[in-house]
Design goal:
The protein has three helices and twelve strands; from the N terminus they run ββββββαβββββαβα. The protein is mainly beta and about 190 residues long. The relative contact order is 0.13.
Length: about 190
C-alpha cells in the first residue's frame, strides 16, 4: 500500500492531500487568517451617536463601522470629587467628530470592531497609558525593593517618555537599569 501526502502552501492558503495507491483519500484546505485588528490604533470619525444605547459608531476605514460604548470613552473627571461624574455620550461626541481609538475586539459576523479611547501601547518592559494619570508597577512584582528600584528608574526616564503615565510590566522584574534606559524608544 503506497501512501503519499502532498502539501501546497501559498500566502493565502495551505492545501493537504492524502493519496493511497494513486487514489485521493482526503483533501483539506485551510485559509490563512488575516492578523487580527486588536491593538491597532485609528483616527476614527463618528458616524452615528446613539444616546439610548450610550454608544457611538465610528468609521475607522473598515468595511463596517466600529462600536464605541460610553464606558470605553475617556471622560473628564472632577479631581475634587470622589465619585466620577458620568456625562451622556451625546454631550461628548457628535457626528463627524474625529477621535483617536484602539481596537479591543475584532469584528465578527455582522458586528463591527469594538473600540476604546483608553489607549495602551506596549513594549517589552513598559506600557504607555496616555489616559492614566499615574505611574504604575505591575502587581506581579512583589518585592518592595524591586518596586522601589523600578519607580526610581521611571523617574530617571521621565524626560525621555512621551508623558509620564507609564506602567512597568512584570517582565521587567530584575532587569538591568541599562536595558530599561533603552526601552522608551521601542513602543510598538
Amino acid at each position: 500500500m503506497a501512501q503519499e501526502i502532498l502539501v501546497n502552501v501559498t500566502p493565502q492558503e495551505t492545501r493537504v492531500a492524502s493519496i493511497e495507491n494513486g487514489v485521493l483519500q482526503e483533501f483539506v484546505v485551510e485559509q490563512n487568517r488575516a492578523r487580527g485588528l486588536v491593538g491597532n490604533i485609528y483616527l476614527g470619525r463618528v458616524s452615528r451617536v446613539l444616546p439610548g444605547m450610550g454608544a457611538a459608531f465610528l468609521d475607522i476605514g473598515l468595511a463596517r463601522t466600529a462600536f464605541l460604548h460610553v464606558s470605553d470613552l475617556c471622560q473628564p473627571t472632577n479631581k475634587n470629587s470622589i465619585a466620577e461624574i458620568k456625562i451622556p455620550i451625546e454631550q461628548i461626541l457628535s457626528q463627524g467628530q474625529q477621535l483617536l481609538v484602539q481596537v479591543t475586539k475584532d469584528p465578527i459576523g455582522t458586528k463591527g470592531a469594538r473600540l476604546t479611547t483608553f489607549l495602551s501601547i506596549s513594549s517589552r518592559y513598559l506600557v504607555y497609558l496616555p489616559s492614566t494619570p499615574r505611574v504604575g508597577i505591575s502587581q506581579r512584582i512583589e518585592s518592595n525593593d524591586e518596586r522601589q528600584r523600578l519607580r526610581s528608574l521611571l523617574e530617571e526616564l521621565a524626560p525621555y517618555l512621551p508623558t509620564l503615565p507609564t506602567s512597568v510590566r512584570d517582565s521587567s522584574d530584575l532587569k538591568s537599569n541599562e536595558s530599561m534606559h533603552n526601552e522608551p524608544g521601542t513602543y510598538t
